[in-house]
Amino acid sequence: MSTTTAVAPLSTADAEALIAAAGKAAEAAGVTVSVTVLDAGGHLLAFRRDDRAVLISGETSTRKAYTALQLNAPTADLVDAVQPGGPFHTLPTALDRPLLFIAGGVPVRRDGRLIGAIGVGGGAPEQDHGFATAAVETLA
């Protein structure tokens, strides 16, 4: 008989903690960003855009989170896969979904299980990835 241990879903408290941690990392770097947190079903749990962040960063943070969630991988790891000749080359245009293959989206896991994703937009892609990763690392 196999037993399955329940894994707590991503809560709004978790989402707010992720937003705060990513915001703190970005602020320390002097970067204004937008941060999106999605639950395992792709539903918005939390969103924050810094006052001076570029407007498009709200959309990019959400698309990065969605992409990381759907493919269960950091978007930074997927950039090469959508280049010509890559295995996902046609994926960005094949689906009517908001995928974005730019670094800054990171899956959120608890006990090895996918429970959501965070996306950060507004800085350079490498910065956004760093802010998202730093936030996920703070989640207990």
Sequence-ordered SSE layout with sheet pairings:
Blueprint: H1 12-28, E1 34-39, E2 44-49, H2 56-71, H3 91-94, E3 105-110, E4 113-121, H4 125-138
Antiparallel strand pairs: 1-2, 1-4, 3-4
Helix pairs in contact: 1-4
Helix content range: 25-40%
The DSSP helix count reads 4
Mean pLDDT: 93
Main sheet overview: 4 strands, antiparallel
Task: Describe the strand arrangement of the main beta sheet, using strand numbers.
Answer: 2-1-4-3
Q: Which structural category do the helix and sheet elements fall into?
A: alpha+beta
Strand tally, please?
A: 4
Quote the distance from N terminus to C terminus: 30 Å
Low-confidence stretches: none
Strand portion: 15-25%
Overall, the morphology is: globular
Our Rg estimate from Cα atoms comes to: 15 Å
The ordered string of helix (H) and strand (E) elements is: HEEHHEEH
Keywords:
36% helix, 140 residues, alpha+beta, GlcG_carb_metab_protein, 4-stranded antiparallel sheet, Heme-binding protein, 4 helices
Could you characterize the architecture of this molecule?
The structure is a single chain. The protein is an alpha+beta fold. Helix 1 (12-28) crosses helix 4 (125-138). The protein starts with 11 loop residues before the first helix and ends with a helix. It is globular. The chain is 36% helix and 19% strand. Strands 2-1-4-3 form a four-stranded antiparallel beta sheet. The protein has helices spanning 12-28, 56-71, 91-94, 125-138; strands at residues 34-39, 44-49, 105-110, 113-121. It is built from four helices and four strands; from the N terminus they run αββααββα. The mean pLDDT is 93. Strand 1 (34-39) and strand 2 form a beta hairpin.
